[in-house]
Design goal:
Layout (H helix, E strand, L loop, with lengths): L1 H17 L4 H12 L2 H21 L5 H13 L17 H12 L14 H18 L14 H7 L7 H22 L6
Helix pairs in contact: 1-2, 1-8, 2-8, 4-6
């Protein structure tokens, strides 16, 4: 059931659309499914984890500092949001594109403390934490970072207000649902 919930928002729009419904119904179903606790909160929790890490470690932590912080969280039983995935057993392919963007476009210097997250530190954590989880929590099938580890922090760092990140992502999902709607109707695909 958990794996269904993780991918629910992608397929809910597809299911409703496959019945040849109007675009409003397709968008409503997909966006309602993606706004639930599992997907929406995962992104929110990852952002909070990244902010908390930056507050504790400061702007220039060493690899050892990051490893000690993550280990302290693991030992205390805390979940490290943004790591592991119920369905994927490899690094999330979406994350590779965000990492490339962050590498190609250096983080803007904050004018104040509005952007307290350093994407470079998060990327460093993304290389350290999966190995740490493999050693200390071997029952996790895929401890690799996922899209949640960096997506919201990236948008916030580049100036998007935290309250607008999920609606911004919903617009991206909406474009995907509508493109799929056109293909479903053009190819007369059967009901899912």
């Amino acid at each position: 059931m958990a794996s269904f919930n993780v991918i629910n928002h992608f397929f809910k729009g597809l299911q409703v659309n496959s019945a040849l419904t109007d675009p409003y119904s397709t968008l409503s179903a997909g966006l309602i499914a993606s706004s639930g606790m599992l997907h929406g909160m995962a992104i929110h929790n990852s952002m909070n984890f990244n902010k908390a890490m930056m507050v504790v470690l400061g702007p220039n932590p060493t690899d050892i500092d990051i490893e000690n912080y993550a280990l302290k969280c693991v030992v205390s039983g805390q979940i490290l949001p943004g790591y592991g995935h119920a369905v994927l057993h490899i690094v999330d392919s979406h994350l590779k594109w965000i990492c490339r963007f962050v590498t190609d476009h250096p983080t803007p210097l904050p004018e104040s403390t509005v952007h307290p997250v350093s994407l470079e530190v998060i990327q460093c954590a993304n290389t350290i934490i999966p190995d740490l989880l493999r050693v200390h929590l071997p029952k996790i099938k895929n401890p690799a970072q996922n899209i949640d580890a960096l997506s919201r922090s990236t948008m916030h760092t580049y100036g998007l207000d935290v309250d607008f990140i999920l609606p911004f992502m919903a617009c991206g999902h909406a474009m995907g649902f509508l493109v799929q709607s056109i293909w479903d109707k053009a190819l007369s695909l059967p009901i899912e």
